[in-house]
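Readers outside the structure-tokenisation community will struggle with the description of the input data as it stands. What matters is that the chain and its backbone geometry are given together, residue for residue. For illustration, here is how one protein appears when written out as sequence plus structure tokens:

…
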Amino acid sequence: MTTVSAVHPRPQLQRPDWEALDGQWDFALDSDGAWSVPEEISWQQSIIVPFAPETRLSGVGAPGFFQSCWYRRSVDIRPAQHGERLFLMFGAVDYAARVWIDGCYAGSHEGGYTPFSIDITDLLCAGITHEIIVHAEDDPHDLAKPRGKQDWERLPHAIWYPRTTGIWQTVWLERRPASWIDSLRWTPSLASWDIACEVAITGQRRDDLRLEVILTLPAGESVRTLAHDIYSVVAGEVHRRIALSDPGIDDYRNKLLWTPNSPTLINAMLRLIGPDGNVIDEVVSYTALRAVGIEGDRFLLNGRPLELRLVLDQGYWPESGMTAPDTNALRRDVELAKAMGFNGVRKHQKIEDPRYLFWADHLGLLVWEEMPSAYRFTLPSIERLAHEWRDAVLRDMSHPCVVTWVPFNESWGVPDLPSTLPQQHFIRALYHLTKALDPTRPVVGNDGWEAAETDIIGIHDYDADPVQIHQRYWSRNDVPTTLRRARPGGRLSTLGGHDPAGQPIVLTEFGGIAIAAPERRARTWGYSTVESPAELERTFSRLLQTVRALPLLAGFCYTQFADTYQEVNGLLYADRTPKVPLDRIADAVAGPFRVHVGQGTSPGGCSEPHAPDIQVQSSNDHVD
């Protein structure tokens, strides 16, 4: 195994000996949580893993309330040899999971969006065929756990969607040697032109192990070696900065940098080597030379200002909920976002399948990663959010596509934020926790409004009138007035003395234009409504022309990528069919433009009572 695979459920730490357990499992719904141990279960039906039982593709399609559910599968497992360890791996189980192997309790996990693994080696009975049982508990009414857009009412309403209970990402078996590479973190530095490599070795402790690291770059049909080093393993760790040969000249440097238009990736192979030179463990990974940052009121990619052209993406499919119908659907979503001219997505209220990030890395799409919200402020919610957010950041911090962390959205889960110091402290605590885990990326402490601590001011403004949008955000006099007085969303933009002066301002939610005939509007959701695709194209283009011409914004995020259940304000229908031809959307989103401004208005001057006459010239040759 020398290259990474697009189907591996853990893209940046792939070992060759793994087996997916997706497919048909025995299944039982436990509506009232009456069963506590496997012996009590009446196995009623089957389910297709990894689809949640609420979805059609699961084969169950149970949308109502239920407290828990049970899974069972028999699987043939070759016995461990030479000190091997066998691990049962879960991409995500919502919300709390307990696992049994051959009737023996094996372990548990809490957190519906993050992965976990269990060493099952010592629990396997004699023989080849073994039984796996999983119990998933997910109280549909518990608002103190991270749940994101999963509705607490029986039927989806407004901007909330059907629930996801139980297994919703891949389950797999992984075979590891007695000592193995357990975790891997990449941190590139353009300033020193190197890549930090942090590796943890777990299992049988030995002081005679070495780690071989090979970094390569595809060069046509051949491979160019960038680095080939061997390091001693000390106390189960290797922390090294791998220096790369610096070409010095920008034109040559740029060929090595990761950008949306040129997503250059560096392949990595890591081998754990014993004293006699034998390879004990081997994994493949990838990284990139990429830096993000803030300078004044601009967002920087690789040291240069970049206009953020994001689209808000909920990450749901009509037949399969939060789980992609297949891995090709993940790639297709990345391709569609790019085809519409966006250079990034804000993954909204969902920690996405890592294979989506794989395609964003490989195809070149920026990702803002956002924590799914709880909706109450309690001691359990504090503990759950902090723990699961930490795990999400650690899981995804080596992906070059991830450029911004967003632990909170619109004060969800901290409803009394302006008047309650403990809630403000919690916002600041998660901001600083994120910075402690990863100081290399900006953090938006609370996107939308009421920012107590943040690197970027995110504004949510769903006014569909381009004149109003222009008047609020055109000049250096307009923006402070908007932030302090107009209060988009009826909320203060900042709290606790946080001064937004000089920080990047991004319109992180706007648009939300739905197509809905008058007779359907009571059953659907949109922030504003039009009646036809042609009217959507006109309204969208005018709004994007206005927003892209605002000189004080560092970028924008349009709501939204695709229709999601009753929220029909996507640029695509729920099945990903475009409502407007993709090239026309891309013209408005990313086409080069020239702005002709009416009398008396300048970027640094006072705002005028009316919007300028803005004419946009665009083409299909999109710029970064």
Q: What stands out?
A: The chain is about 15% helix and 30% strand. The chain has a mean pLDDT of 92. The first strand starts at residue 18 and ends at 20.
